[in-house]
Design goal:
InterPro entries: Thioredoxin-like_sf, TXNDC17-like, TXNDC17_dom. There is one protein chain. By secondary structure, the chain is of the alpha/beta class. The protein has one domain (2-17, 25-124): Glutaredoxin (3-Layer(aba) Sandwich). The chain contains 5 helices and 5 strands, in the order βαβαβααββα. It has a 5-stranded mixed β-sheet with strand order 1-3-2-4-5, with helices on both faces. β4 and β5 form a beta hairpin. The longest helix is centred in the middle third of the chain and has 16 residues, at 44-59. The two termini are 15 Å apart.
């Protein structure tokens, strides 16, 4: 029931969200640091949250699209002009961040690794 998608960088993200129905609440976006050759993100909080999020998604019985978006390498992310930070639709301050697209619900940082908060995010999303 959960469809997942991976996007790399701001350009791919921008192209994808341009085609989302403005009234849709069935898209959830997870912003994370770019993966290293090891397959893990350079972002320690992202590495901690990802297995919790993926396990939760495997059990979720909802029709949603869950979009994994890598925000780039550490230098790109730490730049104050990083478009993920400055875009009024995302306004990221930390990664990982999970946003219900076209909604107000979001989890930031260590919140993303807490199953009970994921439950609340997806319950509120109805």
């Amino acid at each position: 029931m959960v469809t997942t998608l991976e996007l790399h960088g701001y350009d791919e993200f921008q192209k994808y969200v341009a085609n989302i129905d403005p009234n849709s609440r069935s898209v959830v976006v997870y912003f994370t640091g770019e993966k290293l050759p090891s397959g893990l993100s350079w972002c320690i909080d992202c590495v901690e949250a990802e297995p919790v999020v993926k396990a939760y998604l495997n059990e979720l019985k909802k029709e949603i699209t869950f979009v994994f978006v890598d925000v780039g390498n550490p230098e790109t992310w730490r730049n104050k002009a990083c478009p993920f930070r400055t875009d009024s639709r995302t306004r990221l301050m930390v990664i990982p961040t999970i946003i219900v697209w076209n909604g107000v619900q979001r989890l930031e940082g260590s919140q993303c690794a807490k199953r009970e908060l994921l439950n609340m995010l997806f319950e509120d999303e109805d």
